[in-house]
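Per your request, structure below.
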């Protein structure tokens, strides 16, 4: 991170033993998308979010996704890298507990008329 002393924090990528680095191939894009992708990537470089590296061990492809407003969102395909990294030792939070914490452990009451809107149907085959 620019301006952060490495003595304070250093990122380390832990990879499973025996995992071989994967260099994904370069994708071809439609010619009209190329300037939009370059603009988006240049924005990331200017703010210091990404930087060019030499001799990379892992190369992940980008996937441009068009937003509703016509702009391009640049996503990165980290599937190969995710498969090579060990899973976290802590589970994801349980949504029900998160809701309880955010409501101050108060019960949420529904009016009888409101319950008709929120009927849960379960279909069974005979």
């Amino acid at each position: 991170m620019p301006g952060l002393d490495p003595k304070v924090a250093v990122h380390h990528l832990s990879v499973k033993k025996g995992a071989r680095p994967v260099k994904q191939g370069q994708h071809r894009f439609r010619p009209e998308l190329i300037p939009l992708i370059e603009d988006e990537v240049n924005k990331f470089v200017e703010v210091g979010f990404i930087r060019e590296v030499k001799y990379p061990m892992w190369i992940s492809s980008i996937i441009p996704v068009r937003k509703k407003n016509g702009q391009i969102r640049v996503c990165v395909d980290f599937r190969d890298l995710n498969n090579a990294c060990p899973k976290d030792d802590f589970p994801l939070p349980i949504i029900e507990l998160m809701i309880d914490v955010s409501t101050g452990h108060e019960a949420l009451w529904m009016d009888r008329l409101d319950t008709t809107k929120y009927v849960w149907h379960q279909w069974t085959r005979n």
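Residues 34-46 form the longest helix (13 residues).

Regards,
D.
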